[in-house]
Structure formats: structure tokens, C-alpha cells
Amino acid sequence: MKPLTFLPSLFTLLFILVSLHLSPSWAASDSVYDTFLQCLTRRSQPSDHISDIIYSPANSSFANVLTSYLRNRRFNSSSTPKPLVIVTPKQESHVQAAILCSKDLGVHLKIRSGGHDYEGMSYVSDDAFFILDMFNLRSIDVDIQKETAWVQAGATLGELYYGIWKKSKVHGFPAGVCTVLGIGGHLSGGGYGNMLRKYGLSADNVLDARIMDVQGRILDRKAMGEDLFWAILGGGGASFGVILAYQIKLVPVPEKVTVFRVERTLDQNATDLVYKWQSVAPSTDSGLFMRLSLLPTSSQTQKGQLTIGTSLVALYLGNSDQLLAITDKEFPEIGLRKENCTEISWIESVLWWIGFDNGTFPAPETLLSRDYPAIFFKRKSDYVRTPIAKANLEWLWKKMIEVEKVGISLNPYGGRMSEIPASATPFPHRAGNLFKIQYFIDWKEEDPEAGKKYLAQISRLYSYMTPFVSKNPRSAFLNYRDLDIGATTNGNNSYEEGRVYGVKYFNDNFERLVKVKTAVDPNNFFRNEQSIPTLPK
């Protein structure tokens, strides 16, 4: 059989046709599918039923498979580039075959575990591309005696929390409050949740990993070496290989934890609450996490006017009496009382944080659901190292009301986060950072012009915040992916382009990540619009 040297150009042609909304013949589409199927079959062991795991646009299930883990509707328009093939591996050998076949055919491979990349980088590309969709690789093996668990990349956080709860009512794991996040992307980007002040990031609690490298080899921590292991604990796994699984360290949680919510508006002394929060939330007991969200809302006292609503949502790893002893002393501004507190199990607190907060909780099996409605949205991030003065907060309220729709979520650091050195993992935002900001805006209108308007709004508020956030660099959180801060075309200037966003995400850790990338993937096979570049040749 002659080498299929013509295939990359064929794939590129098909990709262009799809992008232009032309209708390539099914024969051409079948050619892409058949060629990839032949390669996948040849490289897979065992090779039976391989056709069951790959989907081309000609397949009636293609659209459903593509959109099932597509979370941002900004990347689901008719003009959004679509993959030529989606591969949904059911065993690790399928992953190996997908990597090697993508290399053989010269087609870009995108890796998706949960589909929550804020900029759609796991399922969109301007190049001809395949998607390697990991959702079938979702096994979870919890060992309570050793207080560890092996979790495959395609599992969700909800499935992990449920798996832990089935084995123990006094163990948990410090990861996100959104339970449909995929393990592969969440942990490799650092990952955090409402126990980060007590136990650090998700990545701070990883013991081992399994990764498939560019040569199709499965490497555990010992085989990959400490440099690559370090890189996939916050540097983004998709720059280095395909994350197959992580071994995590479980953490102790009390039989009962306490949650509460406090809401205020500007005419209810919200400014005083926010100002005081900046000093209390990052310095209080490490078992107390208080997220503060700020959003323009209709005034209840001035008809037709907007005000700023604040919502403080908290988890305390203890009972309400212990909590009140802390808040009465350190944060009386919130006026917390025992009747405002709810004592529940840790697994119930997971459900509470995803919206089951009316006093009744569904069965923990609810966490196994992967249903998550796709919406139009944009996110951005910042870090604050110095408290914002009260006069500046009042100025900020005016700007938020002027912008109208953009919200801000403040996540406190301190505690364990301040104890871990900035170089311990690629995630550098440790001691000295009071809190992280997430800017958020959601919308329902499908009109692209409406989308442009909302994107401009969030950019305006981000600009207004410049004096109050970190500088040189203005830092950002990798898992709050934001193409506004820089992107690469993965061409000859990839290092210079990558450094623009790389130092914002990783600060002084960027150069070490580049060295690791150059060593393990020198030809930059694993790449995306914000991947780690290789050193200039």
C-alpha cells in the first residue's frame, strides 16, 4: 500500500468546505472517515467494533456527540469550525491509536474531557482537526484504607464526589463546586473549590498520574519523571499529552459542615461588608471559605434604578457554634445568626452549592447527572494583592451600574494557599494574593451583534479594574481561559506569542514549562491557541 501522502491536503479541503457551509459530497466525507477508521483499526488492539467509537459528519449521531459536551454556545454557531472526526475512546489503546493516526495523517488533535474550556479550545480549531473526546473513560477506584483514588480523565467531579461518599462519609476532595467539570481539564489546570483555603488546589492533592505521550507511551509518575509530573499539575495537560487518569489524595471532612448565604444591597451597607471581607476572608480560619459575588440588580427602594447586590456564600468545615464564634468576632458586619446557618453532611453541601439550597436535598445519585445547559457566556480573571479602598469600591459600583450586566465573583485565598511555594506547581498565585476575581456575563440572545455588545461590556469592566489588580504581569487563572490576554498561531513566533499569555497564567513558572514542553513534545503536536510553546529553534 502506498503512503497516503495526499491526505493532509484532503482534510484541509474538507475543513474549508465545512467552514464555508458548502456541501462536500458524502463520498469525500466518507473518505475521511474510512481512512481514519482504517488507521485506527490497524493501530488498535483488539480492533473489533472500532467503528462504534468514531463519528464523522455523515453519522446521524455526530451533532449530538459534538454538542453533548459543548458548554459555551458562543462556539456552536453555523460558522463555527467543526471537527472532521470525533473519536470517543473506550480503552487506553484507542487513545494511543488516535494520537498515532492523527500524526500519520497530519491532522490537528483536540482533547476534550468535560468541555468546560471557557474559550472552546477543546473542541474548536481554525485548522482541520479531530476531537479526542474522553467522556467514556470515567472509571473511579476509591481506596478508603489508603485514602486515595484513581480517577480517569473523562469522569466528572460529581461522579468522583459520589464515589467517595459511597465509601466514606468523612472523606472528600478539594475540587470545583460545578459537578459536571471533567477531571482531566480541571486537575491539569490546577483546579480549586470551596476547600482550597484548607487543603489547597486540586492539583496540590495529586499523588500520581497516567499520561499518553506523543509517541503513544503510557507514563506514570515514575516513568514520566518529576518535571513532566510537575507540569501537568496546573500547566494544562493538553500541552504535553493526553491525561488518562490521576491518583488523588482524599482529605478528611467533618460529619457535619455548615453553609450559609448572606445577601445585601448598597442601601444595606453592602460597601462596608465588601470592604471588610477583603481583610477577613483571606485571613480567617482556613476551614472557612466565603465567596462574594457582586452584580448590578434592580433597586427595591428606587424604582427604575440599578444598585449593586452582594451575595456571600460560604462553607465552614465545622458546626454552626464554631462558625459563629469566628464570625461574631471577625465579621460582625454580616450579622450572621444561628438560624441563618445550615448544618449538613459534606455530600449535602456539594448539592447545596449547585442550587439545592431550599432545605431539602435530592439523593446523592443526582451528582451522577451530566446534564448541563449550554449558554452564551464570557469569563475573565484577575488577582488582587492589596485591599481596594472604600472610595474606590464606591467608584467601582458606579462603573458596574454603567456597564449594566457584568458580575464579579471574589474567591478568597490565604490559609493553605499561602503556605505552598509559588514554584511547587505551575500555578503561581499563592502567598501575597488576597483573592481572585472572576468576571462573568451570560446572555440568551443569538444575534451576533448582541454577543459583541456583551463582550465589550466585560472588557470595559476589566479595563476599569486595572488600578486595583496585580501588575507586571497582570496575572490570570488558566482554568478561566481568556483569549483576550493573548493567543498563538503555533507558527515560527510561537514562543514570543506564548510568552504574552504564559507569564500571566504562570508568572515565573512559564520558562520551566517551556523547557518541559520542548523536552517531551519538541514538534508541538499537542497544541492549542494558548498552549505552552517550545523553545525557539
Automatic annotation (TrEMBL):
InterPro entries: BBE, FAD-bd_PCMH, FAD-bd_PCMH-like_sf, FAD-bd_PCMH_sub1, FAD-bd_PCMH_sub2, Oxid_FAD_bind_N
Main location: secreted
Span of the signal peptide: 1-27
Taxonomy, superkingdom: Eukaryota
Assigned keywords, A-Z: Cell wall, Disulfide bond, FAD, Flavoprotein, Glycoprotein, Nucleotide-binding, Oxidoreductase, Secreted, Signal
Short name of one Pfam family: BBE
Keyword field contains Lyase: no
Cofactor: FAD
Gene Ontology MF term list: nucleotide binding; oxidoreductase activity
Record localization: Secreted, Cell wall
PROSITE patterns per the UniProt record, alphabetical: FAD_PCMH (PS51387)
Every FAD-binding PCMH-type domain range: 79-253
UniProt similarity note: Belongs to the oxygen-dependent FAD-linked oxidoreductase family.
Protein name: FAD-binding PCMH-type domain-containing protein
Organism whose genome encodes this protein: Eucalyptus globulus
Species lineage: Eukaryota, Viridiplantae, Streptophyta, Embryophyta, Tracheophyta
